[in-house]
Amino acid sequence: DKKLVVITGTSSGLGKAATKALLRANEYHVIGAVRDLEKMKIVAELEGFDMDRFTPMHLDLASFESVKTFAENLDKFRGDRPIDRLVCNAAVYQPTLAYPKWTVDGHEQQLQINYLSQFLLTSKVMPMMTDSSDARVVMIGSVTGNDNTVGGGGVYPIADLKELDGLELGCKKPIAMMDGYNFNGAKMYKDTKLALMMTSNMLHERFHRSTGIAFSSIYPGCIAESPLFREKRPWFRKYFPIFMKYITGGFVGEEEAGTRLFQVLHDPKCTKSGVYWSWNGGPREGRGLEAMEKGGQIVGAGGAGGGWESIYENDQSDKV
Ligand code: NDP
């Protein structure tokens, strides 16, 4: 039997590339959780997805109702098989918005799509994973969520959740930001990525030992050609890939990023929980320090040298 892998956002970018790699490996069945089934159909055809091993399923992360319905459908689909992998990948990036856009549930869009709904989805899918002998939940983070790297700290605004005052008040219209401060689209995106990475650490500490599920997050590298940047101004889209490639060295193609995510899902080494997986093509991206949480920030992410390595190693699950 194939291992069941759930990935949000398989109709584009990283999710699509990782799906291609998983389907090549021949031991997985991928459930693609997508907001647009028509688009998914076309993409799957163009990419030559083997439809015996790929099942598209509707999921609009901008609605909690949709997340619940998806979880029910997933539960029916799997029958008595466990879910082996969950990848929280889908996201939107809206750095230039002057005012927040709200979802049907009354949250700022990036917050709900990138974070709140992925959190809800994870809590719904976790019980379906406990019978797997190799269950992994992988959150797609970003260095933009860190405060000491070129992508994260050098480029303002910096992700900072402060005391989570906004979240405590429910983070509902008119409160957009988790820190409760004024809306800033670029910071919102970074905050959602930081929150997702912190959640991964928290889930590891609280649930790894009791469920056996490995929780990790990954920075796939900067996919400068990605449609994620579709809302940026044209000049940025033209020069950003060149900037990333020649100046920071942090540039990766979609295929390469997909291979990295595939590795985290496939490699026996990556059964380890509580890890932030990172690659380093960028000489300015940190020095391989151990990443840790300090005052609500993930610090030290980056890693040195080529290849990939674990730099968040804080496995407290064996401690009583
Ligand atoms: P893309 O824009 O190519 O992919 C994002 C995916 O999310 C798309 O498939 C999109 O669907 C889906 N999505 C958006 N909104 C919703 C929604 N409401 N419900 C369900 N699905 C939705 O971007 P990337 O592939 O580059 O990004 C993937 C991940 O990688 C993100 O988490 C991003 O933050 C992260 N990342 C990206 C980096 C980069 O340089 N690009 C760097 C570091 C991290 P649709 O196809 O319908 O548009």
Notes on the structure:
The C terminus is likely disordered. With 320 residues, the protein is an alpha/beta fold. It has one domain: Rossmann fold (3-Layer(aba) Sandwich), CATH 3.40.50. The strands form 2 sheets. Strands 3-2-1-4-5-6-7-10 form an 8-stranded mixed beta sheet, with helices on both faces. It is 38% helix and 15% strand. Helix 1 crosses helix 9, helix 3 packs parallel to helix 4 and helix 4 runs parallel beside helix 7. A hairpin with a 2-residue loop joins strand 8 and strand 9. 49% of the residues are buried. It is globular. The protein has 9 helices and 10 strands.
The total count of strands amounts to 10
| Tally of distinct domains | 1
One letter per element, helices H and strands E, the order comes to EHEHEHEHEHHHEHHEEEE
Tally the helices: what do you get? Answer: 9
Round the mean pLDDT to the nearest integer and report it. 82
- As for the CATH topology, it is Rossmann fold
Low-confidence residue ranges: 281-320
